[in-house]
Design goal:
By secondary structure, the protein is of the alpha+beta class. Helix content is about 45%, strand content about 20%. It has a 4-stranded antiparallel beta sheet.
């Protein structure tokens, strides 16, 4: 009799956990952003800071296409709040449509300063603290 009660308790617990997991998964959404990042320092700054925003589950960054994809819990944050967090870091950014454009990627790229195309974007506003640290030395 005790074995049956234990087994039923385990089954009930598993069903409860499965319900909680499926509820959490149903709140997970994806937001896509264009972000004015041009180098690995930019990418790392976004990863280091946005990862700790409330509700963020995963971040995927495509540096070449200046694309940031964030998976988040919609009960804890929103694309608008995430956009503000990115902009607070000093980046220009905008929310993109959920579905990627059908045009080839080459046609979607923005024209950049030639200096930035070489991977040097240290004159950009989001590098102010890096530039200030170098000037202090």
């Amino acid at each position: 009799m005790r074995k049956k009660i234990s087994i039923l308790s385990i089954i009930a617990g598993l069903l409860f956990m499965t319900g909680s997991i499926s509820e959490a998964m149903s709140n997970q959404e994806e937001a896509r952003f264009w972000v004015s990042m041009d180098c690995n320092s930019c990418k790392q700054k976004i990863l280091d800071n946005i990862s700790f925003e409330k509700g963020v589950k995963d971040i995927i960054i495509d540096l070449e296409n200046q694309l940031v994809v964030i998976h988040y819990n919609s009960k804890k944050t929103s694309p608008e709040k995430l956009l503000q967090a990115i902009q607070k870091l000093g980046f220009d950014a905008k929310i993109l449509d959920k579905e990627p454009a059908q045009e080839p990627v080459e046609e979607q790229k923005t024209v950049k300063d030639p200096k930035q195309q070489e991977g040097d974007c240290t004159d950009a506003p989001h590098h102010e603290e890096i530039n200030n640290e170098e000037g202090a030395e």
